[in-house]
């Protein structure tokens, strides 16, 4: 084992790499007409976020030389569609969940390198606001936030690294406020704090799509998510050792902020516009003190606008893979799951299955509630329904669901603390069994179909250029 307890360093072999780094993906977006470049001088207060939102899901945004930062570059909306994420990883969209599941089962070790692009420029005299073009996104945000930074830290006991994303408020020249939810980062910090120690941390901005997606994996503690990124990309992630903290960071990333979560210190953080498209409230939260910043030459700062599609998609795909695994352990006839954008890619889950017996869909609903506490509403449909088409799911509810027979309601359960309709996460959950009822005459639920419709060649069948006047025999 190498120092700190990570997986063994793998030998160099980039011949199997299939994914792209941030810059490679931006070039692909530009080559395919999916990149918008803003005029220089856009304001970091709302304007960059507004431009990103106006292009969200259609084009990524590059904002060069934003106001106050003539040499700065901000990018956003890079992964606002799941098809884009699959493309950036070099896999087919329909294989995204399966490939993510496989990456967790078969992680690939990182590869430490000595010469890292992310350490080409070193800043020891740090003023974050002057150094980096950090945007303010939403109207009532407490200020500028780093939103696409991979927060890397180590388990103080085992030395194994963890990678996650936390919102980071710029609170001072060398200080950030952080929302640490009850997950692995908070567990590591709590252990360090109980010893009276700070927790070393590196914030990585401008990482590859594979690293971004892997950071959201729901895995056991002491599972380095960079090894998942390696499996997603087909080869181990190149990493570099930080200058002031004992951490390994992706070498090809754009910006690395090195520092420490301070033991025994809490300061006000928030409000901040979150994924439900409401604000997370202000409270005393953890503090990150910065020691050093390293960057590439001409670095790009990736920002994820709170509540926009990129924010939702990054969280949805790993959750779907985890939920699908959990359900299939008990219900192998579950075929697919989808966290719908209309439910902020967190709260509304659609499940496709082939029911084998009466009442089974209700069991699947309860299994989904147990799979992730964020899930609030579940709809289960048959295998003939496209769960990525919200209208098709709504059609199944309209024609196959009866509230007095097919509704499941569970009161007094834990949900998302960011759902404003709950009492700090305490609320209710609802499931709808929209599968065809058992023991009914088959013809009652036979869907209408025009034979041969899908096979029609429209180019051959439609008279190109013919006018209605010609059809009616009018004119000369």
Can you describe this structure?
- Helix 4 (96-105) packs across helix 8 (225-233) and helix 9 (309-330) packs across helix 10.
- The chain has 476 residues and is of the alpha+beta class.
- It has 14 helices and 23 strands.
- Strands 5, 6, 7, 8, 9, 10, 11, 14 and 17 form a 9-stranded antiparallel β-sheet that branches. Strands 19-20-21-23-22 form a 5-stranded mixed β-sheet, sandwiched between helices. A 4-stranded mixed β-sheet has the order 1-2-3-18.
Write down how many β-strands occur, each being a DSSP E stretch of 2 or more residues: 23
Quaternary structure state of the chains depicted: single chain
Shape: globular
Strand content: 25-35%
Question: Average pLDDT, to the nearest integer?
Answer: 93
Reported for the largest beta sheet, the result is: 9 strands, antiparallel
- Helix share bin: 25-40%
Broad structural category: alpha+beta
